[in-house]
Amino acid sequence: MNVSTLRIAALVAGGLLFASCKPSDDMPAADLPKILSTSFGTTPEGASVGLYTLMNTSGMEVTLTAYGAIVTSIKAPDREGHYAEVTLGYDNLEAYLAGSPFFGAVAGRYANRIGNGQFSLDGTVYTLAKNNGPNSLHGGIKGFDKQIWSANPIENMNGVGIEFTYASADGEEGYPGRLDVRITYTLSNDNTLRIDYEARTDKPTVVNLTNHTYFNLKDAGKTSILGHEVRLNADRYTPIDATLIPTGELAPVAGTPFDFTTPHTIGERIDADDTQIAYGMGYDHNFVLNREGEGLQLAAEVYEPTTGRVLQVHTTEPGVQFYTGNFLDGSFVAPDGAPYARRTGFCLETQHFPDSPNKPDFPSTRLDPGQVYRSSTTFTFSAR
Q1: Bridge partners of residue 314, in order along the sequence
Q2: Catalytic one among 85, 301, 349, 352?
Q3: 349 is catalytic
Q4: pTM value?
Q5: CA-CA distances (angstroms) from residue 27 to 7, 19, 156, 320?
Q6: Which of 101, 233, 354, 368 gets the highest tally of CB atoms within 10 A of its CB?
Q7: Which H helix or E strand runs over 160?
Q8: Which residues of 166-186 are buried (b: 16+ CB within 10 A; e: fewer)?
Q9: Is 80 in the active site?
Q10: Which one of 61, 85, 212, 314 is the catalytic residue?
Q11: Domains, the chain
């Protein structure tokens, strides 16, 4: 078949199956990347929510929902070439509506914490919901993780994906300015999930967006993540106070339990006699990435020795929050009915630093009219 572009659309399981690529003449249609679109259910208010599965030619699958622009599932290969779930999450909308510790969600308008639930901009003080002790966390009571996003399946030279858009009203959750947000998830055939963030505002505001997927490269949360080996490309981190707000210091990791410049298992020092470890109940800290110039650069690499799975994270962001599921307590239940216990998942949240609006020495999170907020992060899966 001699075609420059092939598109297939067929009804599958009550949804639409989109497949596209620019194939070679002998590439069968079955080998094309695909998007499967189905219904994920309806909210109590009557809003329909879509579910989208991206499938590449290697066998990897990434499933997302328009509720919260959430990554509900990632199936990645082990060293034997078997694909299996590597994230924590739910398989039904009702569970997400009932409550989630941000499983797979987009965190915003401001990811991570803002101290005392307030910040000032051009002399005006803005008050936010205090939904994490004395602080505001991940955008407030109804942040981006609880909004229904518009979804548009896409196809490009990099693979197949979903483009999510949402318009956050001026004053939503206390933040100034209307914010028009576009987040694009793309799955490529080399087993890389790329997330591109873009936002525009009509008045000065602050923006910090990330994805909050919990990973467990061994068994998707059935057992702990303490045996995973982690390397972080960071010589410094931002110490926190007892409420998990950065003190403003950029402290060296050398000689501390936070030195992951060479690989260490998560469990090796997670319960060390260290004030910062005590504050975070383990690791729940922002690491200052070693960056040279612009573009995507290495943030982290994680290896799980039982399965051989490897996760590499590259980002344009200046920091990454390494969180080890310290607050999981068994109250959230996996699709198979097993509880997600403490430290059964880890997060690598690429970001600007927590509380940056109140820390003038941190990289700025201010966005003005006429400017465009852009950020990109890739998660690449392999095995050895």
Answers
A1: 298, 378
A2: 349
A3: yes
A4: 0.92
A5: 13, 13, 17, 39
A6: 354
A7: strand 159-168
A8: bebeeebbbbbbbbebbbbbb
A9: no
A10: 212
A11: 33-383 (2.70.98.10)
